[in-house]
Amino acid sequence: MEVFFIISLIFFLLLLLHKKYRTFSITCLLGLLLILLIIYPNDSLNAAKEGINLWLFIVVPSLLPFFIINDMLSSLKVPENIGILFSPIAKKLFNTSGYGAYTFIMSIFAGYPSGARIVSTLLDEGKISKMEAEKILTFSSTSGPLFIIGAVGTGMLSSTLAGYILFISHILGAIINGVFSRLLFKGSFSSLGPSSKLGLRKLDEDIISKGIKTSLITCGYIGGYIILFCVIVELIKNINFFDFLTSVLNSLGVLSSTLVSNIIILLESLIEVSNGCKIISISSTPFNTKLILLSFLIAFSGLAVVGQVSGILSKFKLNMKKYIFFKVTHGAFSALICYLFLKINLFTTETISTYKPIEGNLLTSSLLIFLVLILIFNSLGFIINKSK
Known about the structure:
By secondary structure, the protein is an all-alpha fold. It has helices at 2-15, 22-39, 41-75, 78-94, 98-110, 114-124, 130-140, 145-156, 160-180, 207-238, 241-252, 257-269, 273-281, 287-300, 302-312, 320-343, 349-354, 362-387.
């Protein structure tokens, strides 16, 4: 029975690549999932409960306040002010308007899928075009320090220093990805004209109510995707899909067992980023390899986050193929930067695994990183203005 489901799953996934049969293959995949839900009701129920717990007690508390505050800031014209200040940097680095800088700064502190949420708000208000939105997403769809340094570094790897390495690699990878995207995105974006002036909009009496309403809807979208993908992961595990892939790759005799193991770990992790990071962290893979795999995974974000971004931006009909392509390149750049950090021996494995942070907390660390980024942006702005 398991072999039948595995072969059917592989067949319809491959058929999904053919545009002509895409609707048919999706229908068949949904049918398979429905059958598996009936066969494994208890496991599906437990997985759904885990998804609800993850969403209700971790995702909502961390993202909902941010979404509400972002909506309020947007109503007060704060994005325009930040956009005006950082417009020269965004134009020079990413060839976007200053809104690109605003989205990037907010995204690196709030994490997935806040970048998409901000882009959605900017599109709704007519401040950016669809093409600029796609461009901004190449470098502003990022994870945040709370997840990378706190959950992955300190929590899963028991090393805060490893978390910092992952976070720095992640942010540098995003910046390089934004610069790289200039090759595929032609044209100039100038949503903020030279006549734009600093200032705040008049306070709306319904500013809080509107922010709460739209933010709750967004969190609902995110929760649905988290619960769905938690159930899908559990069902795939129940039919031993990844064990089957391991056996097939090993039987070919082309790849080493270590490489096969790393490939399977990465494939299993790509479905959902939080669970994926946990899978990599508890694997028997060497520590340095874990960091490189984690760098790629966190930057790619996983299929669940891709689904969340797609849901948030669905009404705007953006090119999601482009988005996925640049998530892969972001993963590649981040993994490469992490590899270079490890290769030049700035940190030894022993140092990373035994590092203990100085007194303070993650909030202090985040503020320090924020100040450093502000200094970097200001310095770059000074250099650019000086060169004109």
